[in-house]
Amino acid sequence: MKPAPFKYVLASSLDHALALKAEHGDEARFLAGGQSLIPAMNFRLARPSVLIDINALTRLSGIDRPEAGQVRVGALTRYRALERDGEFLRSCPLFADALPHIAHPQVRNRGTIGGNLSHADPASELPALAIAMQARMRIRSAAGERTVAASDFFAGLLTTDLASDEMLVDITYPVLAPRSGACFMEIARRRGDFAIAGVAAVVTLDEERRCASVRLALCGVGETPVDAGAAALPMIGSRLTGDAVEAVAAGVRDLIAPSGNVHASPDYQRHVAGVLVQRAIRTAHQRISHAA
Amino acid sequence: MQPDHHEIELTVNGTRYRRTVESRLLLSDFLRHELGLAGTHVGCEHGVCGACTILLDGDPVRSCLMLAVQANGHALATVEGLAPASGELHPVQQAMHAHHGLQCGYCTPGILMTMTAYLNEHPSPSEDEVREALSGNLCRCTGYQNIVDAMMDAAARMREEAP
């Protein structure tokens, strides 16, 4: 398997990369970690005529804190760097649970967060995390800059809100709020395979230790990451009893419309999603108790 | 489209190479066909099997998921550079031999590269951790048990040999 011929350009600056993308539009692709794009090119499912390599743009890589309560991750930051940053994992504990599920170490050494989110694979973990954490995505083009909420970013199967001249440049996540706990869980046929279902849950309690808010997002069970926050609304104000959590799982099973695959029927995916929702909410809740 | 060529310079196992490559040449094919380092095996060519794993600046990566042109300026290590000298074996190779950790051997170079880097970073892994570290390398012969045994043994030897 060999990629079809293309012209390769190593971008020397972000402006250079964006000017090339503006010039070539959909014919051009940005090359970051290449862990999804190169396989697609090897299969000739993707045949870009221009490949804009952004790996030299080191300013797109790294983690910082633009203001209190926020963590900003550059699009070119590799999974490997996130996995090894203890402070980041404490601020955004969903990542500590989710990163080990992303493929295998060899892939995590190359793959980038911006490439992952821009690729928008519905089975991928990080789009669901972005939804659950209410991340904000900063997008640049040669013409300017804009910011969109994660909930508006994922438009469909392998499709995002990015226009043909735009690049996702960084993602800002709120750090875990006080009296909150988070948990990500996933079932796959083998470790590192695509998810049959995955669930990200963030539970926040009020001062009486009743449920103040629940953020819930799933991967692997639709054409985009699924925001299941609505299914968790009945739990608000409750003590997170077994009945309340089971009601949320029932709501999620009704909400999602998985298409099934060679490893799992739609019914099985729905079942797994319901089980994981309960376990993730309970674990997130327990983690608050332990921390407080 | 006119072939798109680029001049690259890189280091593989300590030897410096300068070559002109077509942009679409995969790093795995560059190592095998241009440099004659055929120890790096090519299995699936889409990043699933792990046979083509090499070290890029010390970290294991899939060489079938990189373009040769992207390796410009980098230091690579392949299985040919693993043994300290001709006629000797790296402790991970020695342990694979001693524990019958290979049958057909096709997956072996990728496993050796993955696990030498892993054991350098994690000198005292549990058996579960070794299995997790191996999860990105497929082996269809062994059922993995002998590979796991070999890696536990290799970890012990490397701890003894460490200064």
From TrEMBL, chain A:
Any one Gene Ontology molecular-function term assigned to this protein's record: FAD binding
InterPro entries for the chain: CO_DH_flav_C (IPR005107), CO_DH_flav_C_dom_sf (IPR036683), Diverse_Substr_Oxidored (IPR051312), FAD-bd_PCMH (IPR016166), FAD-bd_PCMH-like_sf (IPR036318), FAD-bd_PCMH_sub1 (IPR016167), FAD-bd_PCMH_sub2 (IPR016169), Mopterin_DH_FAD-bd (IPR002346)
SUPFAM superfamilies: CO dehydrogenase flavoprotein C-terminal domain-like, FAD-binding/transporter-associated domain-like
Alphabetically ordered keywords of this record: FAD, Flavoprotein, Oxidoreductase
SMART domains xref list: CO_deh_flav_C
Domain (FAD-binding PCMH-type) ranges: 1-178
Pfam families found in the cross-reference section: CO_deh_flav_C (PF03450), FAD_binding_5 (PF00941)
Keyword Flavoprotein recorded: yes
Name by which UniProt lists this protein: FAD-binding PCMH-type domain-containing protein
UniProtKB/TrEMBL annotation, chain B:
Residues in 2Fe-2S ferredoxin-type domain copies: 6-82
Keywords: 2Fe-2S, Iron, Iron-sulfur, Metal-binding, Oxidoreductase
Pfam (any one): Fer2
Name the record gives this protein: (2Fe-2S)-binding protein
GO molecular function: 2 iron, 2 sulfur cluster binding; metal ion binding; oxidoreductase activity
Keyword Iron applies: yes
Signal peptide feature range: none
Organism lineage: Bacteria, Pseudomonadati, Pseudomonadota, Alphaproteobacteria, Hyphomicrobiales
UniProt keyword Calcium, yes or no: no
InterPro entries to which the protein is assigned, alphabetical: 2Fe-2S-bd (IPR002888), 2Fe-2S-bd_dom_sf (IPR036884), 2Fe-2S_ferredoxin-like_sf (IPR036010), 2Fe-2S_ferredoxin-type (IPR001041), 2Fe2S_fd_BS (IPR006058), Beta-grasp_dom_sf (IPR012675), Diverse_Oxidoreductases (IPR051452)
